[in-house]
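Chapter review: from sequence to fold.
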Amino acid sequence: MSSDLHTTVAHQLRRTRQRYTLGRRQLVDLLAEAGRPVTIPDLIDAGARQSQSSLYRNLAILEQCGAVRRLVSTDDVARYELDEELSEHHHHLVCAVCGDIEDVLLSESVEETLRAAARDAGRERDFEVETHRFELLGTCGACA
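The token string follows.
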């Protein structure tokens, strides 16, 4: 993984008075390699070398410092991904049947339309929009 990624996460952890342990570093690597939101069992299957309780604890710490984003889908199962500051701006396809979440990148023209709509909605309510999240709910190919 990129040393910039690890440098940024280490800095984020230091701001919250946490250390960048080997276990946390491995989690960041696994999340970066996954390329999509993953569950605790997914992380274990991918080779996480920590107990399940340590995974939960370390993911919570990484979430608190802003390095990891926790997503809860239609199946109430938590999935984790690197925060967009550490990866790239994207949206999600969410299966309403199995709860699986996949990342999706939209074209720049669609992104601009979403940004404009978000700005307009914010202006109508005297609210300054900083970013947006967009989830498409439906049925994945495996559940169809």
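Two observations follow directly from the output. The chain has a mean pLDDT of 94. Strands lie at 68-72, 78-82, 91-95, 101-104, 135-138.
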